[in-house]
Amino acid sequence: MSRLPELLQTAVTLAATGVPVLPLREGKAPFGNCPQCANNACGGRPNMKSAGPCRCPGVCHAWAAATTDPVVLSSPAWTAAWRRAVTVAYHPGAAGLTVVDLDNAAAVDWARTALPATRTVETTRGEHWIYRGAMSSHNAVRPGVDIKSTMAYARYLGPGTGTMADLPDAVRALAVKEPSPVRPAPHAVVVSARSGNRECRHRTPAFLERGIAMAEQRINEARSAVHTTVYRTFLAVLSTHGWCGCLTDAHVARLFTAAEAKGESPRHCTDAWTNARTRLGL
Asked: Of the residues 52, 87, 122, which one is the last residue of a structural domain?
């Protein structure tokens, strides 16, 4: 039996309370952009980060497609998506909410001692802690913990239990990173390039130069999923060159320049670099 009526009814009910919703396909992923919006043709930002000026009637641009309009939710384009959907998601930030996504038991145990109690929803592997108040979204703020609020989506897994509390400073503090010195340059890199002090294993400067040049080429050749390409390229550079301290601000500036030439903002570059360092424990 089709789950369309069940999913759509859940979506309409949530939307009626002011929570913008969208369908998720297999793999808990949003639907891709339509042909008119593919490859940023509509003017929206790459990788579905924002709807931009696009007014596509379909389920485009991931979280930016979330809506509370019952007419849109039951339109032909959305109905087709609901028929392929496996669950309902929502845009927490647009509803004035923040979800602390605790991905495992250890993360849940940490939250119970570090964060004030609030409404909780069980997930497949952990819990969602939902607070009243919006903030910027951040992944991997600590092991097994993501923050989903503005410019993000979260699965709807039921109303949960407990009384919703106001967003505490303890959650906002998770997103605060130590400031790094800004170099006086047109596109200043606001993160430290030197990531470790292990013994240098680069026998010649040519090894590092070749790595940076290959990274620049990889970014330059990206035709889609630019955000993902930049992050993975930064991750690859750091995993190879980030431990010994040979990576300088000049090298990082070259990578940032290549990314900005593909439409990335300095902030997105900094976030990608910081997330890559966090992933590697640098």
From this structure: 87
Instruction: Provide the residue range defining the domain that includes 42.
Output: 4-87
Domain tally, the chain? 3
Tens digits of residue pLDDT in 191-201: 445 555 555 55
Q: How far apart are CA 217 and CA 255, in angstroms?
A: 10
Contact 114, 176 (CB under 8 A): no
H helix or E strand, kind and range, residue 140: strand 138-142
The alpha carbon torsion through 274, 64, 67, 120 (nearest 10 deg) reads -10
Cβ(69)–Cβ(18) under 8 Å?
Answer: no
Residue 209 covered by a domain:
yes
To the nearest whole percent, how much of the chain has pLDDT over 70? 82
Q: How far apart are CA 69 and CA 148, in angstroms?
A: 22
The reported pTM is: 0.62
